[in-house]
Amino acid sequence: MLEPNIRRQILDAVDTAFEKQLAFTAELVAVPSLRGQERSAQDLMYSAMEERGLAMDRWTLDVDELSSHPGFGPVTVSYAEADNVVGTYEPAGPGGRSLILNGHVDVVPTGPLENWSRSPWDPAVVDGWMHGRGAGDMKAGHAAALFAFDAVRAAGFDPAGRIHFQSVVEEESTGNGSLSALMRGYTADAVLIPEPEENMLVRANVGVIWFTVRVAGQPTHPREMAKGFNAVDAAYAVIAELRELEERWNAERGRHEYFSDLDHPINFNVGGIAGGDWPSSVPAWCELQMRVSIYPGQGVDEAWAEIEETLRSAARRPELAGTVPAAQRTGFNAEGYVLEPGSDAERTLAEAHQTAFGTDLESFTTPGYLDARVFTLYAGIPSLVYGPRSEDIHGFDERVHLESVRRVTKSIALFIADWCGVSPRA
After folding, report:
1. Which of 17, 45, 297, 340 has the smallest number of Cβ neighbours within 10 A?
2. What is the pLDDT of residues 253-300, one digit of tens each?
3. How far lies 112's CA from each of 43, 115, 122, 271, 288, in Å?
4. How far apart (Å, rounded) are the C-alpha atoms in residues 155 and 152?
5. SS3 at position 216
6. Rounded to an integer, what distance in angstroms lies between the CA atom of residue 383 and that of residue 199?
């Protein structure tokens, strides 16, 4: 545990630089880093890391290389501008434990702009909250990691362990960004990911599968509609079959540790639907974009086999007239994750949190996806997902609570110092 005077110096350093931290966070939020458009945000992160004297690495994700890994998510978009950035701090000598501080710059689409109170790229501060797409998920936490490192050094200390600052893409769609960083050889004794987690630690999270279902119809003129086969009507029957599978999986939650107390841990989201070519033609096709969650320990291939069987069963419904829908995986192909209690990394974070917040560190289970699974499932590294309070992530008027950001930054700074160890700056 850190000496009290060291803790105080680090905490004070966070406060001193907090306005600068918020200005940088606002600059990052103002960049519309949607999927396939992340390069400008990565330029900003690269410059910020380089200014801190880190050894820099930047590369474009390689689909062919990634596809050889069991954790790969199938790709349906170009990776021409899908860059990862890593800045590495190397201590003067050996001795401290190493750390990965991981964050993503990609954000989800905004939805209709008229439903926002202001532009989603306007990082306005209102009543103690910073607004904007990505402010919570997860640009405030991403910036907090850099400024936590700054606070340790501003307090007069250098971390004694190696630190990799990872700025990745594809967290919102495949997890391939963090997977690529792992495959490039970046490992450490622990990982901390400051996602927006309400000042708590994630104990477990679901796995996720993305897929497209395509239902074929038989077009006719509406005056002869009975002779046709309406693919849109049939798609709703497919959704009903998938909902039955969803409820069966939810009924099994008592068999899965950390999920038994959740009311509805497994969610089948119809994220998009499109079909038909002409109002006066019975639709010849309809596509569903699906996001399905699975339990930790439930293999992706096992879950996918059940989904395919459900789609075959749907063909027996009269709306489908024996037509079996076609399905293709199109993104996330990820298993769930559990952070087993008792690690030294968790103990260290709990002590840092207690100092910064004055309360015990709580943990919880989330029915959302997190990149922690990459490091724990495929490298055996304890991965701590812990970050600030936010509201309406993936919704309208997304925002992050600034006092929470301040305290989380203090927690991360204390964690860096205690986990890696420190020595006085020369």
Report:
1. 340
2. 999 999 999 999 999 999 999 999 999 999 999 999 999 999 999 999
3. 27, 6, 15, 15, 20
4. 5
5. strand
6. 16
Q: Residue 112: how many CB atoms within 10 A of its CB?
A: 7
Q: Which one of 334, 366, 387 terminates a domain?
A: 334
Other residues' Cβ atoms within 10 Å of the Cβ of residue 403: 12
Which of 334, 351, 376 terminates a domain? The answer is: 334
* CB-based contact 14:146 (threshold 8 Å): no
Q: What CATH number is associated with residue 82?
A: 3.40.630.10
Instruction: Decide if 208 contacts 294 (C-beta within 8 A).
Output: yes
Buried b (16+ CB within 10 A) or exposed e, 188-218: bbbbbbbbbbbbbbbbbbbbbbbbbbbbbbe
Q: Strand ranges (DSSP E) for 255-357?
A: 268-275, 285-294, 326-334, 337-338
SS3 at position 396 = coil
What digits encode the pLDDT tens for the residues 25-47? Answer: 999 999 999 999 999 999 999 99
